[in-house]
Amino acid sequence: MSWFKRVEKGIVTPTEQKKETPDGLWHKCPECKTVISTAEHRQQLYTCPKCDFHDRVNSQEYFEILFDENQFQELDAHLSSSDPLNFVDTKPYPDRILATQRKTNLKDAVRCAHGTIHDLDLVVACMDFNFIGGSMGSVVGEKISRAIDYSRQHKIPFLMISKSGGARMMEAGYSLMQMAKTSAKLALLSEEKVPYISLLTDPTTGGVTASFAMLGDFNISEPGALIGFAGPRVIKETIGKDLPKGFQSAEFVLEHGFLDFIVHRKELKKRIADLITLLRPQEAAAPEEALAKNATVK
């Protein structure tokens, strides 16, 4: 019966031979602490199967979720920020941009693409929060403006997925100018009667909220997203009062009339396709059909 007992004493496994669980195999929900495999987490579209908490995801994941077979044409992928103000904080602004580009494999805080969603053409501009907090600089404003122009020229609905900490302080006034620039482009898009859907995700704050994020034909959000101009801590310190429970959550903002509806990420693709179908102009009936409808039966 020696297999039930350790016969040899002092068995020691060398450190280099010890087996450890590789990093990245498991995901722990920040809200309810449920642990699931990363493969299941991805299958759940980066939401918690127990409490429905929506993890922050970026353009790569949203493109994968929305575009049919993850096929799309990226627009203006080469654009990168310059340093108009010769800005230096703890490091020069160009060095910060280069370091962030290497770390994230992104050119800036937004990516734009054209693809199909349930066989319907769609242009998507999606912000990446891991690029300097999704801050809105001149490149972000320019890429969004060009994506809107592309939608206007080709009469394709436009979806903006916002996720931002606000304006980029390293570009000062140049950053703030993007609020007016993108808003003016959206006004032109509206004149052409091309649908615009704005999806606000966690977090959407600052100049992004004050401009293009709230100008959609439909303004929608994911559950639990933080939406506001300034953060709750800043507002509380400013007014010196406690804030209502759930202040600036998507549910709070919906209750106060600033959103049209909240959509779960698993339903996002279908709901957006439904909105595109609802908003796009109906094609005029063929002359023969019109004559047939107006014909008098004799």
From TrEMBL:
UniProt xrefs under PROSITE patterns: COA_CT_NTER
Any Pfam family the entry gives: Carboxyl_trans
Gene3D superfamilies noted in UniProt: 2-enoyl-CoA Hydratase, Chain A, domain 1 (3.90.226.10)
Transit peptide in keyword set: no
Binding site for Zn(2+): 29, 32, 48, 51
Keyword annotations: ATP-binding, Cytoplasm, Fatty acid biosynthesis, Fatty acid metabolism, Ligase, Lipid biosynthesis, Lipid metabolism, Metal-binding, Nucleotide-binding, Transferase, Zinc, Zinc-finger
Recorded metabolic or biological pathway in which this protein acts: Lipid metabolism; malonyl-CoA biosynthesis; malonyl-CoA from acetyl-CoA: step 1/1
GO molecular function: acetyl-CoA carboxylase activity; ATP binding; carboxyl- or carbamoyltransferase activity; zinc ion binding
Listed cofactors: Zn(2+)
GO-annotated cellular components: acetyl-CoA carboxylase complex
GO biological process entries: fatty acid biosynthetic process; malonyl-CoA biosynthetic process
Similarity field: Belongs to the AccD/PCCB family.
Name under which the protein is recorded: Acetyl-coenzyme A carboxylase carboxyl transferase subunit beta
Organism field: Rufibacter glacialis
